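Appendix C: a fully annotated inverse folding record. The material below is reproduced so that readers can follow the format used throughout the book. The structure is listed first as tokens, followed by the designed sequence.
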């Protein structure tokens, strides 16, 4: 159970706006407060742990300061030698805190572990706070006894061994969905919970997408849910789209139309209150539970959705199911357009 990052140096030590770097690898994961027990640096910036030599690593985990409601965004990189670093995980769109745990399906060679801090949601706080960084060169990793931890299994199988339709390392899934509950539906269908769909996203969609092997890209919310150029870009570049048609939000169908016109794969889902529109009725829609208790405590619901995501990707073979049916209507062929 060797933590090969223990007491290893941080390359940014001594730089301006980087403080207490020795705290990041001293092994202390319990004695930290508002003022002590963590390394900090001004974001955007990096904290780079030098393991001293190349190790075959089975797990990386690090603890972000979590004593209040603030959340951080970041990217995690690794490198055998600098500056040739490889992006391992992108959390630039979804804030998080506490333990971040990454395990590998096969050992991954690296000497440097690099946390690129991007933001801190605490108002007027321009610093990124890392309590501890750990890296393990064995499969056996000490158990974390904490109520919440972001845990991600990173596929590291060779490209040639990955089946057609299965996600490869770094592939993304953009989630398009309603993010607010219409006022007229609150009492009848959604228990007067205006945050219902945010809870669906956090407790069901994001875990299921990760379990299916993709990196989730959550909906971008700006202003009054305006469709932005950033959303269009995500629709174009993402390897898969998870489309929740629940409560029939018009913008979702606009985004679905863009994705369909690009002839790229989509996995469809809905809740039990939503009838499938005629236009998309020819494709399978997975129906998920709207009961919060099931998302939180029932692992089966996440697993069922993850299987649907994987099946949708495999059967689409990189193309859009709707476009395969309608894309050649009237002699128009998307493949030649």
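Designed amino acids, in order:
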């Amino acid at each position: 159970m060797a933590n090969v990052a223990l007491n290893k140096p941080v390359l940014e030590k001594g730089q301006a706006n980087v403080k207490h770097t020795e705290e990041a690898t001293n092994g202390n994961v319990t004695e930290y407060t508002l003022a002590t027990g963590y390394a900090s640096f001004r974001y955007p910036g990096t904290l780079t742990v030098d393991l001293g030599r190349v190790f075959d690593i089975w797990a990386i985990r690090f603890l972000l300061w979590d004593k209040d409601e603030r959340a951080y965004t970041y990217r995690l990189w690794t490198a055998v030698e600098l500056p040739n670093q490889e992006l391992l995980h992108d959390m630039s769109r979804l804030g998080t805190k506490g333990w971040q745990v990454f395990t590998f399906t096969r050992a991954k060679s690296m000497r440097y572990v690099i946390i690129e801090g991007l933001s801190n949601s605490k108002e007027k706080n321009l610093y990124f706070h890392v309590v501890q960084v750990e890296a393990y060169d064995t499969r056996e990793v000490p158990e974390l006894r904490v109520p919440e931890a972001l845990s991600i299994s990173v596929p590291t199988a060779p490209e040639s061994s990955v089946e057609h339709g299965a996600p490869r390392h770094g592939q993304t899934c953009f989630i398009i969905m309603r993010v607010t509950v219409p006022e007229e539906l609150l009492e009848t269908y959604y228990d007067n919970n205006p945050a219902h769909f945010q809870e669906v996203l956090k407790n069901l969609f994001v875990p299921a997408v990760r379990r299916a092997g993709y990196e989730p890209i959550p909906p971008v919310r700006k202003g009054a849910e305006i469709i932005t150029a950033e959303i269009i870009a995500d629709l174009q570049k993402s390897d898969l789209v998870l489309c929740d048609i629940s409560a029939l939000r018009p913008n979702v169908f606009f985004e679905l139309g863009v994705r369909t016109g690009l002839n790229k794969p989509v996995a469809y889902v809905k809740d039990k209150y939503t009838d499938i529109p005629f236009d998309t009725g020819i494709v399978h829609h997975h129906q998920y539970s709207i009961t919060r208790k099931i998302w939180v405590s029932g692992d089966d619901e996440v697993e069922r959705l993850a299987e649907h995501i994987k099946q949708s990707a495999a059967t689409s073979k990189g193309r859009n199911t709707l476009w395969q049916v309608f894309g050649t209507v009237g002699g128009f062929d998307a493949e030649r357009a």
